[in-house]
Write a sequence for this structure.
């Protein structure tokens, strides 16, 4: 850093505007996961959606809400704000990718028995239109394309507040037994 670069928010030039902040609060994810290991995947997600268990910390950080759970399908919403903007003035693709990774994984999770988990092997995202804080609430839907004992396949899409598809994804997920 050179001596002309600001080192703290307090040293930032006035041309940057007023600083903004947000606070994130979450609960111990290990305790939640331990309780969830005793439930089927669908029961676990329903317990989170119904407020019996706290949401995952990533959902708290990103502001995602579970809005629908079915057999092999889920729906989450999220409303991006400026805190997830990239340097060119739009929502970072990582926000949308995280939303998609969450719904495809949770769609698979709805079909898993107690003590069985999953992890993403890959996530292929196609971005179709830019997202801004004024794009409205994003709705992401994920569904299982093909369940499996070792690998499951899922797909998802994200729509903006006007109902336009902003991104789609496909994913392969490794199924992990109790261990």
């Amino acid at each position: 850093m050179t001596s002309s670069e600001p080192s703290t928010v307090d040293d930032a030039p006035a041309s940057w505007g007023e600083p903004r902040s947000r606070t994130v609060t979450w609960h111990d994810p290990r305790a939640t996961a331990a309780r969830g290991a005793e439930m089927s995947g669908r029961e676990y997600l329903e317990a989170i959606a119904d407020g019996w268990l706290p949401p995952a910390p990533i959902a708290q950080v990103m502001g995602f809400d579970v809005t629908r759970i079915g057999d092999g399908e889920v729906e989450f919403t999220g409303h991006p704000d400026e805190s997830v903007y990239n340097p060119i003035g739009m929502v970072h693709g990582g926000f949308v990718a995280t939303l998609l990774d969450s719904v495809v994984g949770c769609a698979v999770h709805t079909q898993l028995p107690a003590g069985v988990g999953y992890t993403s092997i890959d996530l292929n995202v196609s971005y179709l239109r830019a997202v801004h804080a004024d794009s409205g609430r994003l709705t992401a839907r994920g569904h299982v394309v093909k369940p499996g004992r070792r690998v499951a396949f899922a797909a998802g899409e994200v729509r903006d507040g006007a109902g336009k598809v902003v991104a789609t994804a496909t994913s392969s997920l490794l199924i992990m037994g109790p261990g």
About this structure: The longest helix spans residues 93-109. The chain has one domain: 26-176. The mean pLDDT is 93.
